[in-house]
Amino acid sequence: MRVTDDLTELGMLELVETCPAKMSPQEMADFLDGTPEERKLVIASFKAAKLVAEASGWDKFVAVVKAIYPIIPLAGEIAGSISAVYGLGQI
Q: For residues 37 and 44, what is the distance between their CA atoms, to the nearest angstrom?
């Protein structure tokens, strides 16, 4: 089962709108359904391309993920990926 199987269209739009790096709904679904390693690569590519200069740009996105997926550890995985790429402690 994919993480996005239960995601409503409205929820997906909210995630796409709050993501600091512009993604299409399909790119967002692939990002959410990816492994933590795949997410790190995506975030690293955004950082390398200077599409999201600072980790703080992801704060609102992570908050929306936490609101949409309260019982899935996805927000923690994404925050961990962001922390790993940006070399920060805890977001």
A: 10
